[in-house]
Amino acid sequence: MNRASCAIVAAAETTQLGSVPGLSAIQLHADAALNACAEVGLRLSDIDGLATAGESPIDLCYYLGLAPRWVDGTNVGGCSFMSHVGHAAAAIAHGLCSTVLITHGESGRSRAGMPRFWNVPPYSLMGQFEAPFTIPFPPALFGLPILRYMKQYGMTHEQLANVAVVQREWATGNPRAFHNKPLTLDDVLASKLIAYPLHVRECCLLTDGGGALILTSAERAAELTARPVYVAGTGESTETPMISQMADFTTSAAFCVSGRSAFQAAGIGHGDVDHLMIYDAFAHLPIFGLEDLGFVGRGEAAGFIWDRKTAPGGQLPVNTNGGGLSYAHSGMYGMYALQESVRQLQGRAYAQVPDARVSVCHGVGYMFGAAATVVLSNRQP
User: How many whole angstroms separate alpha carbon 284 and alpha carbon 294?
Assistant: First the structure.
């Protein structure tokens, strides 16, 4: 696609976040979609492209009464919605559709209309070669790269816990955040140990909710809203379905590829970035993300966060909604990160970064199995 030829004109979450037992997963998709349409004065009949993950795009189109010209059901885990942004921008640029709706909805806490348990198919690679030898449970599987990183770079338990503390500062007082009370290092380290070295406050929330984006051409965006957010560059990649088979437990190859691709497509350097969202299902992911995206050197991210470089008032605001650790996490967090990037660039975030012009939104899927990166800007080149 041509750089900034596509723009996000609407970004809306579900009416409620947190505990929403009265709505099923597909109803949460619909609620977010209707909120996004209302935000920019569009009707569902104006939508001719749809992308979603978690829910079947066929089921969702039927439920919403859509007959789109373009459909994307890519599901690579929690970063799927970031991938959808790149796919939608390309589809619009090539005339395959004109107005794309990207939706997310999960009843991660109440489990309404959702499978009861996380299931690893026995015929999958993970099912054959990892599940028989461990508990196929994200906190247990994610412990392997964390421990290797701690051993190699000397990261302390306090530095890992500090990620959750700093992100809570961003969420403090935000009525939309699931946890919005101050958090201390002692609180994190005294919280329940889930799977060494992860305590419960270093693990993502379980919430209900969702969100939706509407994308269209930059030309049409100017007619719809005074605050378009341009898709400046995107990137995506995959790595391994088995965390035990990572080439290097201290870095994600998929992170590196997707980030480099997005930055090159956008034509920006790290000094151009005013705001950064990094998918944080667990406390180590912002550390890996900062290094793999090239913002700091190897082994430096934990100290960078400890020195309050990502905290309110710091040089690189990161996860300004509180992230999946404090704001919301219904299972696939990528949509919430995108929502915050858009809010920051439109000047309507709860913890607003002054004069934010460029936001990078980076996500992970299936425990380092996939990655996607989106560069957004409120200035069209």
Answer: 16
What is the C-alpha separation between 99 and 46, in angstroms, rounded? 7
| Ramachandran assignment for 15, one of left (phi > 0), alpha (psi -120 to 50 degrees), beta (any other) | alpha
Instruction: Report the candidate in 350, 232, 328, 335 with the shortest Cα–Cα distance to residue 12.
Output: 335
pLDDT in tens, 67-91: 999 999 999 999 999 999 999 999 9
Three-state secondary structure call for residue 108: coil
Domain CATH code at residue 10: 3.40.47.10
- Yes or no: say if 7 and 221 are a contact pair by the CB < 8 Å rule: yes
Kind of pairing between the strands at 193-195 and 6-13 = unpaired
Q: How confident is the model at residue 1 (pLDDT cuts 50, 70, 90)?
A: very low
Please answer whether residues 356 and 274 qualify as being in contact, where contact means their C-beta atoms are separated by less than 8 angstroms: yes
Q: Indicate the pTM of the whole model.
A: 0.96
Element containing residue 339 per DSSP (H, E): helix 334-346
pLDDT at residue 3 tops 80: no
Please state, as a whole number, how many other Cβ atoms lie within 10 Å of the Cβ of residue 253.
17
Would residue 368 count as lying in a domain? yes
Quickly tell me which residue has 């209707």 as its tokens.
34
Q: Residue 176 has which token pair?
A: 């939309």
In a domain, 331, yes or no: yes
- Residues whose CB is less than 8 angstroms from the CB of residue 353 and which lie 6 or more positions away in sequence, other chains included: 274, 275, 317, 320, 344
What span, in angstroms and rounded, lies between the C-alpha atoms of 362 and 198? Answer: 22
Best CA proximity match to 320, nearest among 210, 171, 135: 171
Q: Which helix (H) or strand (E) holds 102?
A: strand 99-107
Q: Chain centroid to CA 250: how far?
A: 21
How many structural domains is the chain composed of? Answer: 1
| 295, part of any domain | yes
205 CB-near residues (< 8 Å, 6+ apart): 178, 179, 324, 325, 326, 327, 328, 329
As a whole number of angstroms, the distance between CA 264 and CA 286 comes to 21
